[in-house]
């Protein structure tokens, strides 16, 4: 069983597979909120699960001026997207997962195998909903039997995110807010504090007032807008989101996880939409 420790204001205890040792995560390197450190966000995937528009699946790369970074979600296509973007996957040190659907975490088996075959030595930290380690192991065994138990040169460390409990993830502090999306484990909107900025990301959910809480005061809110106006259980449509736009206390909103219905609307949209490999400065 994983150890879990609450250290003042954040969970910090990680546990390890691949090597028989535990490791305590470093304290957050992020400065206190209010310190203005430029950070940027690259969309390594802005599409839905089914490849609409030829887009990659959900994946965001948040990076600071300190050279640190956090990967947020890692869909099944994300290793390809990293290589398309010229980002060396072996430099990814930590991944935070919104929920355990294949278009949000299915790239991890490929990321781990790529590291194994390219002599990665740097530890990989994965923070996600309860059960994340078992789900990843199961995915690896289905896709590449025997792959989950091999001895690697690098450790894979896990942290289970608990609803509304801040967690230290490298240079960032991540607070998950449970949303409404069936995926075999809790699904979260993720509030990420990094470099004095707040970036909030919601992967998949139907409308919930929790989004208002999660996005309050954010510099940037990246949110799923799956359909234009059609309401689908467990997903969010553009009309519903924009009807609540004034209540979302975020300075900037960018829509992602777009299906063909959204991509066809183009000029009708009165909000920014993400594009694959697009880089956004969070200021
Ligand atoms: Zn999902
Ligand atoms: Zn999804």
Description:
By secondary structure, the protein is of the alpha/beta class. It has one domain: Ribonuclease Z/Hydroxyacylglutathione hydrolase-like (Metallo-beta-lactamase, Chain A, 4-Layer Sandwich), CATH 3.60.15. Helix content is 18%, strand content 29%. The chain has a nine-stranded mixed sheet. A seven-stranded mixed sheet has the order 11-12-13-14-15-16-17. Strands 1-2 form a two-stranded antiparallel sheet. The radius of gyration is 18 Å and the shape is globular. The protein binds zinc ion (ZN) (2 copies). Residues 49, 58, 101, 103-104, 203-204, 257 line the site of one zinc ion.
Ions and ligands = zinc ion
What's the N-to-C terminus distance? 40 Å
Q: Helical element count?
A: 7
Helix content: 10-25%
CATH topology: Metallo-beta-lactamase, Chain A
Structure summary:
The chain is an alpha/beta fold and 283 residues long.
Show the helix and strand layout.
Elements: E1 6-7, E2 10-11, E3 13-17, E4 23-24, E5 39-45, E6 59-64, E7 69-72, H1 78-85, E8 94-96, H2 102-105, H3 108-117, E9 124-128, H4 132-143, E10 156-160, E11 167-169, E12 172-179, E13 187-194, E14 197-202, H5 210-215, E15 220-224, H6 238-243, E16 253-256, H7 260-263, E17 272-273, E18 279-282
Parallel strand pairs: 7-8, 8-9, 9-10, 14-15, 15-16, 16-17
Antiparallel strand pairs: 1-2, 3-4, 3-10, 5-6, 5-18, 6-7, 11-12, 12-13, 13-14
């Amino acid at each position: 069983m994983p150890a879990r420790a609450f250290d003042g204001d954040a969970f910090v205890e990680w546990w390890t597979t691949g090597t028989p040792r535990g490791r305590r995560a470093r304290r957050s390197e992020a400065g206190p909120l209010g310190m203005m450190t430029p950070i940027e966000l690259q969309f390594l995937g802005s599409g839905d699960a089914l490849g609409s528009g030829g887009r990659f699946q959900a994946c965001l790369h948040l990076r600071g001026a300190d050279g640190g970074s956090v990967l947020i979600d890692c869909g099944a296509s994300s290793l390809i997207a990293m290589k398309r973007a010229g980002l060396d996957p072996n430099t990814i040190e930590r991944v935070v997962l919104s929920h355990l659907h294949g278009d949000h975490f299915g790239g991890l088996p490929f990321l781990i195998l790529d590291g194994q075959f390219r002599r990665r030595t740097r530890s990989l930290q994965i923070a996600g909903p309860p059960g994340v380690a078992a789900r990843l192991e199961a995915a690896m065994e289905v896709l590449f039997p025997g792959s989950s138990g091999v001895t690697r040169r690098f450790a894979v460390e896990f942290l289970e995110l608990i609803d509304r409990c801040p967690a230290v993830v490298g240079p960032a502090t991540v607070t998950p807010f449970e949303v409404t999306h069936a995926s075999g484990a809790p699904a979260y909107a993720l509030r990420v504090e990094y470099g004095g900025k707040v970036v909030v990301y919601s992967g998949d959910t139907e409308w919930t007032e929790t989004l208002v809480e999660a996005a309050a005061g954010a510099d940037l809110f990246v949110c799923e807008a799956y359909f234009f106006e059609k309401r689908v259980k467990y997903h969010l449509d553009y009309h519903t989101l924009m009807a609540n736009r004034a209540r979302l206390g975020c300075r900037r909103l960018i829509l992602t996880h777009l299906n063909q219905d959204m991509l066809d609307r183009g000029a009708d949209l009165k909000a920014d939409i993400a594009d694959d490999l697009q880089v956004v400065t969070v200021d």
